[in-house]
Amino acid sequence: MIDIPTVCKLLSRLRELISLPSADVSYSAYATPDEVIEDLYKLEKGIIEKNFVAVRKLLFLLLPTCDLQEISIDSGFGDEFLKIAEELENALGVNSEAELYPEQAIRQARAMSCQPPEIDHYTEIAKFTGTDNSNYETTYVSCTCPDYTKRKLPCKHIYRLRHELLNKCYKHW
Ligand SMILES: [Zn+2]
């Protein structure tokens, strides 16, 4: 789950650092510090709205050698940036479950062979029909199938729903 208050607090600290007079964005894809700040606001808004494209974009921006790290080093706050990036990744918490439980990768791989679900795009709840015609109701974090009920970790239905929602977000971003 995403710890939204912590993400907002950390993004606000990043914006503060980037608005200091010492901020230097000349070796990044950004033209001015204001552009970086605007992007961080946009990502924060997306994360509050639980837009998972925003989550992915932020995770991407935090990667070593990506813009934010480059800017932080050139601007003299490289050490603080590394701490903020680590705390942000923890607060976003999106990759942890697969890393903690390697068998999750099998479920991620199986997700694409499920029958395409019926999705209510307003509530983001999906209905899956299993091979034996049983019906499951799936949300971003839960499912009524036996696998989820037993393990309380994302099942293939949850991964498939996330995939479908993410695809939809990309089209509308
Ligand atoms: Zn399931």
Strand content: 5-15%
Backbone CA Rg = 19 Å
| Tally of separate domains | 2
Q: Strand pairing plus helix content: what structural class?
A: mainly alpha
Ends: how far apart? 22 Å
Classify the helix fraction into a percent range. 55-70%
Characterize the biggest β-sheet: 3 strands, antiparallel
Bound molecules: zinc ion
> Major sheet: order of its strands?
1-2-3
What sort of overall outline do the alpha carbons produce when their principal axes are compared? elongated
Q: What's the pLDDT, averaged over the residues?
A: 86
The total of helices stands at 9
Low-confidence stretches: none
N-to-C order of helices and strands: HHHHHHHEEEHH
Compose a concise summary of this entry:
The protein has 173 residues and is mainly α. It contains nine helices and three strands.
